[in-house]
Amino acid sequence: MSLRSTAGELGERGLKAGLTWLSHRRALGRLATRVPITKPMVARFVVGQTLDEALVALGKLRAAGYATTVDVLGESVTAADLATAAADRYEATIHALAERGLDRNVSLKLTQMGLDIDPDLCRATVERIFRAAAGVGAFVRIDMEDHTKTDRTLDLWRAVRPLNPASGVVIQAALRRSPADVERLLAENAPVRLCKGAYNEPASLAFRERAVVDRAYLELGVRLLRAGARPAFATHDGRIIEQLIGFAEREGIGPDAYEFQMLNGVRRDLQAALLRRGFRVRVYVPYGTEWYPYFMRRMAERPANVAFMLRSVLKEGRSGRQAGGSSRHAG
Ligand code: FDA
Question: Residue whose CA is closest, atom 20 of ligand 1?
């Protein structure tokens, strides 16, 4: 690696660490969700604040041929009633998906269900959602949060899995422990979503150089494909995607034995191209008012987003002043 690209990666890592730190600042989150100027940038990633807005977006994606999974935004709740309210929203979402004939598939975070305040509450809340999902044949994916939650997340999923076998977990290629986790999950016939990892983890536990994370991703992806585990590859990395497709083709593994998953608003060109080539593409569709930490992680993943956001904020500010304070949002 050249000195320049090393310096670039270090700078990027610093920015990522800063943005990740900001993503945990609740007061800033409360402020940001009230400032209209952030709306246009957020709207790229988050389909709306209400279930109705989400249903419209989901209908359009389905009409275009995409599979979907819905994230009712929220995480790190600090009170039991917030966890209960989150479960209510998930239940309502699952029922609405079933009623409208939309893809019955949701993704949730355990800290939204109270993991950090009371493990029993968290388990009871997740059980409620698993039962509701099982009742209408919906799939539930438990997202993976930072490394302090890995064991608790996998353990809780194992405990509640019998309530809804149509459920699965997420493995982060960046974590050094992941090959061992994958082996255990393969033995359990677990549906696995493989991602690189969105959290800023210590070097003792996680790979931090891009190239190393990419290599780990590919190795785990190949392992899952070879085992016939019907993996979900959550990445927008075109190079990795082509390598996985190439491997699958050489091994005679058909496109119905795996799927690609991408975030709403990210690499729409790649999503469409894969769909045209006959691959299953599932779009991760977040909605809700608690968008701040999710949005900040999207910023941290791609520093260019920050420059773009700042430019649009400045532009909004100028046009807002010209228009006597009212601001136009480009959707
Ligand atoms: P990489 O970061 O190398 O990006 C490849 C290319 O994609 C970039 O060059 C850029 O073009 C584009 N891109 C990526 N991120 C972008 C962004 N935010 N804005 C604009 N362009 C962007 N993580 C986690 O820790 N736990 C989880 O449960 C999940 N769940 C999950 C579900 C799904 C469906 C996806 C797609 C991702 C996740 N992630 C996740 C996030 C994941 O770990 C990772 O942080 C992001 O996907 C970015 O990594 P890529 O694999 O896309 O590669």
Answer: 266
